[in-house]
Write a structure and sequence with these properties.
The protein is of the alpha+beta class. The chain has 35 helices and 19 strands. Strands 9-8-10-16-19 form a 5-stranded mixed sheet. A hairpin with a 4-residue loop joins strand 11 and strand 12.
Length: 954
């Protein structure tokens, strides 16, 4: 038997190598254990159960051991190499040296890549570190074995048995210990108590059966049981109970004195981002962005909202049947009707207060919960959206908190171990904090779709702000066949309001150095203004000016003459002549109506002027006056609402809204036309005049700003008088014309077809069908290869009742593009008007092949099927509408008719109740008559077509 070659290693070196090999064996077994867990995850094997809320502690120990032992192994191995290499460099065989160097190199790669995985340098868009780590881990044992076999001191036969047995044994032991240590999903003690008491199926829980709490067979889509602790908000918790505020405001809240300085200086907390302390350790960039967002300043750290919610809490004291039922269940709330109603707002604005049961108490405005706003977990703790009706209809997962080791450690080794465990195995954290629906518009709808009903207003159901349906029922969502402009790709809320932004502060979630922006940029310049945040104002203004809207001074009318595309046609102005000109404002890039949100306090308007060649303003509409109010004769983009006494709503007191005097918004891909009249000065022959229009924006109108300031002085510490909120120019258009002679200029060309189309759209929406027809006829001439001209002419014809003309235009459309889905919508409308119901139904079904979530098409299909006597099919179509919008009153009405026709009277009665519940109260318009008589400017704004005489507001 051949003797084994003696080792060149000293005894101490042999012991060091033995330690390295022993640690290596542990690392191999540990790695196989972790890989077994990964495989079990993929196969959904319960024994290894890593769930959405639970991560076994033994598993975390093994993950941390992988990191800790790995570093010890690296240090020992490098020390051994430094000790061993000089002695063998010139004596060993070359192949042994090469494999040794390769093993060393792989070890260094393993160490560096492992550190990258645990650091902010690693991110989802850069998987090189992870796969380098995996590859090095696989190759090191192989190269080390080759190195030993090629060296003089080869492994013993015994070692070939011991090492595999040791690896398998350690792996088996780890698997057994895993099973012994895992005791199922771990819930908080409060959750266990709630489950034991049955609250997790109660009226405040996500598992509740609302039918068990409804007073009759008809259950409104947004019904909230009066027994819910969160009533009238639609919000729920998994436990069904109020929750500790720390779930929403996670972090150290034990030092309120840290907030006092900001409150003294600003009136609210600015520099201490509450509820994001633990998040910032890994997501510094995202927290930095969120800290300047309107979401962050949503609660009592928003002095405008604070003024409104306190006004409601002090004055909305009248009770109603639903509030009485709530008080009957919570008897200690007797006399607190106004505070109960305020929870309707708090589901979205004050979750840290409302979910902790604080909104029915006196609010300490300086408390961390009141100053938290909408924190990270205000959104990221949501695990379910109940439906698409809004009003804060989400569920907060409060059954388990942070599952990682030392979750409550504020600093030191415990915090380091916690963060290391999370970075090493972030899957549970990701499952908890990043639900798939977070990427959808439905998630945003929870708070950006609102309805009011008798729970809050003591009156009836009314639609409030509704960005979701305005988006969903549009071309932007690729859901509306009747849209005038259909983009090439669908966009959701997050595409515009959460674009990619460079993670300057670093962030472990970054992909290629970028994260989805958590600034949630939109239109609110008021909040950054009152805290002196010029950078955020600049970002918002850049956002608003980035192809969102356009302004075009497009048409000029004088006596019987009309001129269009004025920059091209350059008509001469007659001295002393009376003119009317039209300004087209188009929504180019806003994915919902402009303006959106709380339009009773928003303020968009046109400032229009006639300016001489020496910059003298000759006539003006829409100027901001010395008192801070906008010229009342301006053309506004907002909503003017009135209460039950016919008085204007100016305090954001939504609970008092009864009806609208007017609402002027511009839908996605549509346009508005404003008309202005002026007189050319007699002595301006040979001179030039500029017709200029600027679309301006101010987040809050002056009346609301005055109310907020005067009713909440403590929230405006930096101001001695009512703040002058910033006015932003979103877009402008102007044209220069000569008085007395015509300039040499060409006629409109093919490139102007869209301008004529925008003009026609605006006129059609004002019911000026003659003007719209002329504009669309020009579109057809300038762009005969496009469907826009002839299809829009068909829309005009059917609006006027000229069905034969509509058929002719539709045949022109088919000659251009046969079977187009958008054209099929117009076919359906024309055929329906013509009483050809079967053909109309076929046309609508053609639309639905391209636009399966087109609610208007489903609605019309249900109507024509009912008229054609196909009642069961009609019900199927109408159910298609209600699947998209369960509050669609017209669908409920036609369901009622179809069910009655089928003799299903009980169901028809429920459908009738639904229709009456969501029906518009037409009689409420009587309240606007006196208001319009007393406010002539607002009366003019309420008219679809009206002309603003320039100069009256200047």
């Amino acid at each position: 038997m051949k003797k084994r070659t003696p080792s060149r290693l000293s005894t101490r070196q042999q012991r060091t190598l033995l330690a390295v090999v022993a640690l290596g064996v542990f690392m191999v077994a540990d790695t196989l254990y972790l890989l077994t867990n990964r495989l079990a995850d993929a196969l959904d094997f319960d024994y290894f159960a890593v769930t959405d809320i639970s991560l076994p502690k033994f598993y975390q120990v093994m993950v941390l051991s992988h990191t800790g032992v790995g570093w010890v192994l690296v240090v020992l191995a490098l020390g051994f190499v430094a000790w061993h290499l000089p002695a063998v460099w010139r004596k060993s065989r070359k192949r042994a040296i090469y494999t040794g160097i390769a093993t060393l190199t792989l070890g260094i790669i393993l160490a560096i890549s492992g550190q990258f995985i645990l650091s902010a340098a690693s991110n989802r868009g850069n998987p090189v570190a992870y796969w380098s780590h995996v590859a090095a881990a696989v190759l090191i044992p192989l190269f080390y074995l080759a190195h030993r076999r090629l060296s003089l001191w080869k492994p013993s036969a015994r070692s070939y048995r011991i090492v595999p047995i040791a690896v398998v044994g350690l792996l088996a032991l780890a698997v057994v210990l895993h099973g012994l240590s895992y005791s199922g999903e771990q819930y908080t003690q409060a959750a266990e108590e709630a489950f034991a008491a049955g609250k997790h199926t109660g009226p405040g829980s996500k598992a509740r059966e609302v039918a068990d709490f409804a007073p009759d067979d008809f259950i409104p889509a947004n019904f909230v049981p009066a027994e819910s602790p969160f009533f009238p908000a639609a919000t729920t918790t998994t436990t069904g109970d109020i929750l500790p505020s720390r779930i929403i405001t996670r972090g150290d809240l034990s030092q309120p004195e840290k907030l006092a300085g900001d409150i003294d200086e600003y009136g609210f907390v600015v520099n201490e981002p509450i509820g994001s302390e633990t998040c910032a350790r890994c997501h510094a960039a995202i927290v930095e962005q969120w800290a300047t967002s309107a979401h962050r300043f949503a609660s009592f750290n928003n002095p405008f909202y604070e003024a409104t919610i306190n006004h409601m809490r002090d004055n909305s004291t009248a009770s109603n049947a639903e509030v009485d039922a709530h008080i009957a269940y919570y008897k200690d709330l007797a006399g607190e009707e106004a505070k109960i109603k305020s929870k309707w707002c708090s589901g979205c604005h004050d979750p840290a207060l409302m979910l902790a049961g604080k909104m029915t108490e006196e609010i300490d405005r300086a408390s961390p919960q009141a100053q938290a706003g909408l924190t990270c977990l205000g959104c990221h703790a949501i695990d379910e959206i109940h439906d698409q009706t809004g009003n804060g209809n989400y569920n907060i997962a409060d059954e388990q908190e942070d599952p990682y080791l030392f979750a409550n450690a504020k600093e030191g080794v415990g915090r380091f171990v916690h963060d290391t465990a999370l970075k090493a195995r972030p899957i549970v954290h990701k499952k908890q904090m990043l639900k798939p629906f977070f990427r959808t518009s439905e998630f945003c709808a929870t708070c950006h779709k609102v309805s009011l009903d008798s729970r809050v207003n003591g009156y009836r159901w009314l639609r409030g702000q509704n960005e979701f349906d305005n988006w969903h029922d549009s071309g932007v969502a690729l859901n509306a066949s009747r849209t005038f402009y259909l983009p090439g790709v669908k966009r959701v809320c997050q595409d515009c309001h959460m674009p990619l932004e460079e993670a300057v502060a670093g962030d472990v979630s970054a992909r290629d150095g970028y994260v989805k922006s958590h600034r949630f940029l939109a239109v609110n310049t008021a909040l950054p203004f009152i805290r002196g945040d010029e950078e955020t104002i600049a970002r918002i203004e850049e956002f608003l000016q980035d192809e969102k809207l356009s302004v075009d001074v497009f048409a000029l009318h004088h006596q019987e003459e009309a001129h269009y595309a004025l920059d091209k046609s350059q008509p001469a102005l007659v001295p002393g002549g009376e003119y009317t000109f039209d300004v087209v404002v188009r929504n180019k890039g806003v994915g919902h109506t402009f303006p959106g949100g709380t339009n009773d306090s928003n303020e968009g308007w046109l400032e229009v002027s006639v300016v001489s060649d020496d910059d003298a303003v000759l006539a003006l509409s829409g100027a901001v006056q010395d008192d801070g109010h906008v010229d009342p004769g301006a053309h506004f983009y907002k909503a003017l609402m009135v209460d039950a006494k016919g008085q204007a709503i100016h305090r954001r007191n939504a609970q008092d809204i009864v009806t609208a005097v007017y609402v002027r918004t511009i839908g996605p891909g549509t346009a508005d036309v404003a008309h202005y009249s002026f007189r050319v000065p007699e002595d301006y022959a040979g001179r030039k005049l500029t017709l200029r229009a600027r679309l301006l924006w101010r987040k809050f109108d002056r009346a609301y700003t005055e109310f907020a300031f005067n009713n909440n002085r403590q929230g405006f510490r930096r101001f001695d008088q009512v703040p002058d909120l910033p006015v932003t120019e979103i877009a402008r258009g102007e044209v220069e014309l000569v008085v007395g002679e015509s300039s040499a200029a060409g006629a409109p060309d093919a490139g102007d077809w869209m301008r004529f189309n925008d003009y026609g759209i605006g006129l059609l929406l004002q019911d000026d069908t003659q003007g719209a027809a002329r504009a669309f006829a020009t579109v057809e001439q300038l762009a005969p290869e496009r469907l826009d001209g002839c299809r829009n002419l068909a829309k005009v014809a059917v609006r006027d009742g000229h069905l034969e003309r509509a058929y002719e235009h539709l045949e022109d459309c088919e000659a251009l593009v046969s079977g187009d889905g958008q054209t099929a919508w117009v076919w359906g409308v024309v055929l329906q008007e013509d009483g050809r119901y079967e053909a109309a139904a076929q046309a609508y079904r053609r639309v639905l092949r391209d636009f399966p979530e087109d609610r208007a098409t489903w609605r019309n299909l249900g109507r024509v099927l009912y008229l054609d006597g196909r009642f069961e099919e009609a019900l199927e179509a109408l159910d298609g509408v209600l699947a998209i919008d369960p509050e669609d009153r017209v669908a409920h009405y036609h369901r009622m008719l179809s069910l009655r026709a089928l003799g299903r009277e009980d169901e028809a009665l429920i459908a009738e109740q639904a229709y009456q519940y969501y029906q518009i109260d037409e009689s409420a318009q009587e309240l606007t008559r006196r208001y319009r008589l007393e406010h002539p400017h607002d009366n003019r704004e309420a008219l679809k077509i009206h002309v603003h005489p320039l100069g009256e507001g200047g």
